[in-house]
């Protein structure tokens, strides 16, 4: 195994991120993956702000939140029932120290979140967490990748309310990522391209709701 492939696989381990977050001071994000809050506002307006307004008090779950400033930006917009989970104890302790009323921090692996009650989340948000679990060939991902993605998707479906929504941001081409999202038939999903005029690199955003059979399970 090459060093690049080994590092890619290490992204799915808490030890890797514990070491990386030792460099963070809890101020500016060290790992604001893919898109900033400002860049995501058009997507969030359509899929969060206009449908899950702050006055409705939706519970928002940030999956693999790291030290992103998206939760704090949502807090400033009025979303005061947020839960951030991450499997890095380093970043969880760092962010807890900020003591932001309206954001609860919990150490948990997104593939197994026993502290999150079933059918309790209105909005789940992932910006790069699933991507960190993916390595190997995009055309034929290793069994480990498929299994991790399956465990993760099942856990998100478990904690989402029947009318909840899962918002996912990725840099991976839809024809590569959709099979991982859909392998268990859990979601009805729609996708869009997040384009910027100054960038030639496309990102993709998915809005997912439980499929009928998943909602009735």
TrEMBL record:
Record domain Methyltransferase type: where: 61-167
Top-rank taxon: Eukaryota
One of the Pfam families matching this protein, by short name: Methyltransf_11
Key words, A-Z: Methyltransferase, Transferase
Keyword Transferase in annotation: yes
Family annotation (InterPro entries): Lys/N-term_MeTrsfase_sf, Methyltransf_11, SAM-dependent_MTases_sf
GO MF annotations in UniProt: S-adenosylmethionine-dependent methyltransferase activity
GO biological process per UniProt: methylation
Family that this chain belongs to: Belongs to the methyltransferase superfamily.
PANTHER family: EEF1A LYSINE METHYLTRANSFERASE 4, SAM-DEPENDENT METHYLTRANSFERASE SUPERFAMILY PROTEIN
Stated name of the protein: Methyltransferase type 11 domain-containing protein
Species this chain originates from: Friedmanniomyces endolithicus
